[in-house]
Write a structure and sequence with these properties.
mainly alpha, Beta-Lactamase, two-stranded antiparallel sheet
């Protein structure tokens, strides 16, 4: 039922294990996330979110995301 709800919502969903340093592994992604990134579901699950970073990724933004995760436990909007 959870998987069906996450697929039907249409929003990008990525759920990781609750760890920041080192980052938790990706436990679940929906097809919207796979479509956005170009990776398949099986390529994403089991990896860390660092897979989605590029050399040009702004480190200040990453630190802000980590701070939000530490404070709120989620990046859900």
């Amino acid at each position: 039922m959870f998987k069906q709800a996450m697929e039907a919502c249409g929003d990008v969903v990525l759920i990781t294990a609750p760890a920041l340093d080192p980052p938790g592994i990706i436990l679940f992604v929906n097809s919207a996330m796979a479509s956005l990134t170009g990776y398949s579901l099986t390529e994403l699950v089991g990896e860390t979110p660092r897979l989605l970073q590029e050399p040009a990724t702004d480190r200040a933004v990453l630190q802000q995301l980590k701070g939000t995760l530490r404070e709120k436990g989620s990046l859900a909007t």
